[in-house]
């Protein structure tokens, strides 16, 4: 997964669009031991529960027909909003000196959204990225998969 082992005191962010785990490796590169330092959760019901209106319709030019318009995916928008919030939390933590190095693990879409919002202080401290979702894995499985 990563090119090199996760060093002692390196932080690990494991996130998706609804949950973020901030972990710290209190072990070493060969025997990682992740401890939870912070958990952020964001309630995000399915899009069908968030939309209040029926999908829109639009008249086709000159044909007398009406075409459906794709409804807004509120669930995806909330995931993107949460990714931006996580990037802001990372900035505040980096600015306060909470971590010197961090590894980010998130699904590709969330990882891409967070990248758009990283501050240069955070970018300078990122030592690795993994484009996978580990948020629902037990801590020992996260350790094993990131150390492999």
From TrEMBL:
InterPro entries: BaeRF_family12. Residues 37-46 have a biased composition (Basic and acidic residues). It comes from Jiella avicenniae. This is Host attachment family protein. It comes from the Bacteria. Pfam families: baeRF_family12. Residues 37-72 are annotated as: Disordered. The lineage of its organism: Bacteria, Pseudomonadati, Pseudomonadota, Alphaproteobacteria, Hyphomicrobiales.
């Amino acid at each position: 997964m990563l090119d090199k082992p996760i060093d002692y005191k390196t932080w690990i962010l494991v996130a998706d669009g609804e949950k973020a785990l901030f972990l710290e490796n209190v072990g070493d590169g060969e025997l990682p031991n992740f401890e939870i330092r912070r958990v952020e959760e964001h309630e995000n019901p399915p899009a069908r529960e968030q939309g209040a209106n029926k999908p829109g319709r639009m008249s086709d030019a000159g044909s007398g027909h009406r075409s459906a318009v794709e409804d807004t995916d509120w669930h995806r928008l909330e995931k993107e909003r949460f990714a931006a919030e996580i990037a802001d939390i990372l900035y505040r933590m980096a600015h306060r000196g909470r971590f010197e190095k961090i590894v980010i693990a998130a699904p590709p879409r969330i990882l891409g959204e967070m990248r758009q919002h990283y501050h240069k202080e955070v970018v300078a401290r990122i030592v690795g990225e993994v484009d996978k979702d580990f948020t629902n894995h037990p801590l020992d499985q996260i350790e094993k998969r990131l150390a492999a």
